[in-house]
Amino acid sequence: MITRSKSLHQCFLTSSESTEPQSYQEASQSSAWTTAMKEEYSALIKQGTWTLVHLPPNKKAIGCKWVFRLKKNSDGTIARHKAQLVAKGFLQIEGIDYFETFSPVTKQPTI
Predict the structure, then answer these.
(1) 86 or 106, which is more confident?
(2) Distance between CA 12 and CA 10 in Å, rounded?
């Protein structure tokens, strides 16, 4: 059974602008996705998320990739195009690329 909201949702996904690209090459062909990537990059620079440094000897750089998502309104229309630049941390090997991890967690008694 297809409800009216599902049929509207399918209608909006037929356009090439309304699909999530699977690669940077695909996304770079669209002005909406290019704008989303520029916004994400600008936000990372503004927040000081990372700093460009020289790679230490005998170490390999961690790669990154773009992840693309469509944010939609409750009626299925596109609210915005969202692009995120994420590190490929899963390629690191414990004991070679890192030795310990740190995750700040707030516990209830602390508050």
Answers:
(1) 86
(2) 5
pLDDT, one tens digit per residue, over 62-103 is 889 999 999 999 998 999 999 999 988 888 888 877 788 877
Contact 91, 41 (CB under 8 A): no
Question: Taking the alpha carbons of 92, 93, 99, 100 in that order, is the dihedral positive or negative?
Answer: positive
Q: What is the pLDDT of residue 107?
A: 74
Q: Cα(54)–Cα(47) distance, rounded to whole angstroms?
A: 21
Whole-number CA gyration radius for the chain: 20
Phi, psi of 84 (to 5 degrees): -130, 135
All residues at 6 or more sequence positions from 18 whose CB lies less than 8 Å from its CB, including other chains: 12, 70, 78
Encoded amino acid at 43, one letter: A
List strand residue ranges (DSSP E) for 6-87, in order. 64-72, 78-87
pLDDT exceeding 90 applies to what percent of the chain?
45
